[in-house]
Amino acid sequence: MWSIFRKEVASFFNSLIAYIVIGVFLLLNGWLFWIYPETSILDYGYAEMDTFFQLCPFILLFFIPAVTMRTFSEELRSGTMEYLLTRPVSLWGIILGKYLSCLLIFCLALLPTLIYYFSLYVLGNPAGNIDSAAVAGSYFGLMLLAGVYAAIGVFLSSLTKNQVVAFLVSALVCYVVFVGLDQFSQLFSGSVQYLIAQVGLSIHYNSLGKGVLDSRDIIYMGSVSVLFLLLTYQSLNNIRK
């Protein structure tokens, strides 16, 4: 698994698209958080990062699929999938190696955004006037959400040779599971509305952003990731047969 992991990380950072994708991710977040008048924290007047954590999941709808779209699509397109499946690595080793490499790339891209927290911590009046627990919970929720997005992207990449198709469908499915189901639930009322909203990810992500790490939210988001990794396993197993 670790050989696959190292290969994927090295392959990603050996391409120009890696730096473009990460650069665009950081520029968009920085522009929206500090400069854009409608969302700028400087105009908001409060030392909190709610704006960043509300907007970042939507930016990830494009960032994560851009990272995952090549994981298996490139193998299928170039004809190296058969070679990969015959290597002395289990299917789970291949899947987890590629999946974890995508999560590492996300973590490396997210790391510079910690500057936002330290800046607000220092600039607060008084200094340190920021809800650190809520920020930590939101970062944790963002990582869980990225894990779900990555699992979806890896699965859909295993279904097509076309990276563009994998990117577009992954972005669409991620949108549906994050906010689409929540919007769909508004068409109903009572327990039906509640149940549909609970299936979506936004309610669990927002709950973690309050600084309370509810095991139900963590287990649910982790379970969705596992579900799509299981689907990836089945997809690769069908190819191997």
TrEMBL record:
Regions that span the bilayer: 12-36, 51-68, 89-118, 138-157, 164-181, 218-236
Location in or out of the cell: Cell membrane
GO cellular component annotations of the record: plasma membrane
Keyword annotations: Cell membrane, Membrane, Transmembrane, Transmembrane helix
Entry annotated with the keyword Oxidoreductase: no
The keyword Repressor belongs to this UniProt entry's keyword annotation: no
Membrane topology annotation: Multi-pass membrane protein
A Pfam family reported for this protein in Swiss-Prot or TrEMBL: ABC2_membrane_2
One term of GO molecular function: ABC-type transporter activity
Parts forming coiled coils: none
Location (main, coarse): membrane
UniProt protein name: Protein involved in gliding motility GldF
Organism the protein comes from: Leadbetterella byssophila (strain DSM 17132 / JCM 16389 / KACC 11308 / NBRC 106382 / 4M15)
